[in-house]
């Protein structure tokens, strides 16, 4: 299971995991994320909740280091969030929106290439790809192209693409989206296993069942129900 540990010999510190302090974003003269703080340590899940348009995806993008902050700070394992930092990218895997894929590569080939990108040798990468295919219960999709799957199947493949690489922090935008009940349960099991292995999981969700299954704390944005 691809959950990185801190550098060998380095004990966990209070800055491990995700620390968001009073982060605010404005675009086009409007506040799109009001000042928001959260803390999630190793092995902890925090669910970001709130109504449509509240800023959940924006907060995840800020934690992923792909948004300019208007104020506040995001620190991940002691590293200031910045997608241009190789050290930061090594720590953080995210599924926020649809990942880019290639038309002429199969599901297994996509997964193996991502694993190789993060340092796996060819045979290790093939095995890692098969491991996440098994974990996500998408064996029948192994040799499909990504234009040959349903929207729910695509969601599982995108999750597999996120899980096949090493990470300590996992950021997910509505991981339950487009999934039926059985597959939502499978995703909850997958995430519970990653938490158990020490990952920090921060995710936006509209699913009370997923929040309960993961024993997540919640960080709510906005006031509407
Ligand atoms: N690039 C942008 N420029 C201007 N406004 C934006 C931009 N991206 C998002 N917004 C606005 O920011 C606000 C927050 O959007 P965001 O996608 O973070 O909401 P959300 O809580 O994830 O919503 P949902 O539950 O519908 O996914 C919305 O009002 C949206 O219209």
TrEMBL record:
Transmembrane segments: none
Domain of life (superkingdom): Bacteria
Entry keyword Nucleotide-binding: yes
InterPro entries: AAA+_ATPase (IPR003593), ABC_transporter-like_ATP-bd (IPR003439), P-loop_NTPase (IPR027417)
UniProt signal peptide: none
GO molecular function: ATP binding; ATP hydrolysis activity
Keywords for the protein's UniProt record, in alphabetical order: ATP-binding, Nucleotide-binding
ABC transporter domain location: 18-223
SMART domains, per database record: AAA
Name of the protein in its database record: ATP-binding cassette domain-containing protein
Natural source organism: Galbitalea soli
């Amino acid at each position: 299971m691809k959950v990185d540990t801190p550098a060998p010999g380095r004990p966990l510190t209070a800055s491990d995991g995700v620390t968001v302090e009073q982060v605010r974003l404005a675009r086009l003269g409007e506040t799109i994320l009001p000042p928001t703080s959260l803390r999630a340590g190793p092995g902890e899940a925090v669910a970001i909740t709130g109504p449509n348009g509240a800023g959940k995806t924006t907060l995840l993008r800020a934690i992923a280091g792909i948004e300019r902050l208007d104020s506040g700070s995001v620190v991940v394992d002691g590293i200031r969030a910045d997608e241009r930092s190789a050290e930061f990218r090594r720590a953080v895997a995210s599924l926020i929106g649809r990942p880019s894929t290639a038309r002429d590569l199969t599901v297994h080939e996509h997964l193996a290439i991502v694993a190789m990108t993060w340092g796996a040798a060819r045979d290790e990468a093939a095995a890692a790809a098969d491991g996440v295919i098994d974990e996500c219960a998408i064996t029948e999709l192994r040799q499909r192209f990504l234009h040959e799957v349903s929207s729910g199947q695509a969601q599982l493949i995108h999750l597999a693409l996120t899980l096949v690489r090493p990470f300590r922090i996992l950021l997910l935008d509505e991981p339950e989206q487009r999934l039926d009940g059985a597959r939502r349960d499978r995703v909850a099991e997958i995430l519970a296993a990653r938490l158990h292995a020490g990952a920090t999981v921060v995710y936006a969700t509209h699913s009370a069942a997923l929040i309960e299954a993961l024993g997540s704390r919640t960080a709510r944005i906005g006031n509407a129900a």
